[in-house]
Amino acid sequence: MQTLLAPATTHLLEAAALLAAGDLVAFPTETVYGLGADARSRAAVEKIYAAKGRPSGNPVIVHLADPADAPTCVTTWPPLAEKLAQLFWPGPLTLILPRGPLLTDAVSAGRSTVALRCPNHPVAEALLRTCGFPIAAPSANRSGFTSPTTAQHVYAELAGRIPLILDGGPSTIGLESTVLDLTSKTPTILRPGAITQEMLQSAIGPVLTLHQFLAPSTSAISPGQHHRHYAPTTPAFSISRIDWSAHEEKIRTRSDKIILITYDPAIALPAPHEVLLLPPTAEKYAAALYASLRQADDLTASCILVLLPDNLEGMWAAVVDRLHRATIPFSIT
Ligand code: TXA
Ligand code: MG
């Protein structure tokens, strides 16, 4: 299959027509690029799983043009959901609720619930409005790899597997949405994101965070779950500041090339190693992270070393969550 990478400005109608015909289209959102299909159609949603190589047990997020569409996709729309939608939609917050009959159960991968969000991106919104139906869209990457924040990232992973990628420039947030389960007794964050636990708690009271990391050794038994290594060709390790201080000399003098990803310009490495310096604030770091992981992979080194931020406040929690999933802890050998 030929994959067309085209500006969203000129190819919006073609994208809507492909989606209406049951085909896949990748499109930008403010978090990451999504791989879209008609969320009412089992056959269309099954194409997402095939194109991504996604395990069949991992459900996908359904995107809506307007918060007012949400009640049509669920069996109950509680006041708590209405409040959160009013405060945070359109935006990077996904709500888990009981799925309604409008949507194919393929979006839920065997569960009775559905994940809903209204994206805050002009192209995503225009596409949803033009289609007039909800669009199922996981991140537009091959399963287990890092989410794409540009149309070119999508092309690198999915060329030949989907007909069209709408280019709307880089995603501004750069990390996937916060996923909040509203079906549990206390609302529970299943995936941290730009809408932080602090923000949710000040809006609705107590909110829990599920810290669910599987050890790397168990990832083969539980595909699609959590601790997946980003780069198959370049091993990626995270290192705390304390471990950096303890092992800096040994790392500096290694003869094989290391790529260091750091937010602290004082932590550096001499040649032949290379340093990718990310911004020191959580929002800017998040926006640059996935592109820098890809860049590090392209620089062909023996390993990637990521300095772990020691701050967990605000959006740093989401950044550190993704770093733990993309890397394994550094250990000196
Ligand atoms: O920012 C985002 O959320 C992006 C853009 C494209 O909207 N989408 C995204 O989708 O990251 P995906 O499929 O890569 O991640 C969706 C997450 C997964 O961890 C999935 O397991 C969870 O949401 N999820 C989806 N439906 C669920 C459900 N019914 N119950 C529990 N978790 C669910
Ligand atoms: Mg994903």
How does this model look, in words?
The chain has 333 residues and is α/β, with parallel strands linked by helices. It is 30% helix and 19% strand. The strands form two sheets. The protein has an eleven-stranded mixed beta sheet with strand order 1-8-2-3-7-4-6-5-9-10-11, sandwiched between helices. The chain has a five-stranded parallel beta sheet with strand order 14-13-15-12-16. It starts with a strand and ends with a strand. The chain binds threonylcarbamoyladenylate (TXA) and magnesium ion (MG). The site of magnesium ion (MG) has 3 residues, from loops.
Which descriptors would you attach to this protein?
9 helices, five-stranded parallel beta sheet, binds magnesium ion, 333 residues, binds threonylcarbamoyladenylate, 2 domains, eleven-stranded mixed beta sheet
Question: Would you kindly provide a brief summary of this structure?
Answer:
The chain has helices at 8-20, 42-52, 79-88, 122-131, 151-158, 197-204, 241-252, 282-298, 316-326, and strands spanning 4-7, 25-27, 34-38, 61-63, 93-98, 113-117, 135-136, 164-167, 178-181, 188-191, 208-209, 236-239, 258-262, 274-277, 303-307, 328-329. It is an alpha/beta fold and 333 residues long. Helix 6 (197-204) links the parallel strand 10 (188-191) and strand 11.
Biggest β-sheet description: 11 strands, mixed
Count of structural domains: 2
Spans of at least 5 consecutive residues with low confidence: 215-226
Task: Look at the structure and give the mean pLDDT.
Answer: 93
Annotation, overall tally of beta strands: 16
Strand content: 15-25%
Bound molecules: threonylcarbamoyladenylate, magnesium ion
How would you classify the helix and strand content by structural class?
A: alpha/beta
CATH architecture identity of the largest domain: Alpha-Beta Complex
Secondary-structure element series: EHEEHEHEEHEHEEEHEEHEEHEHE
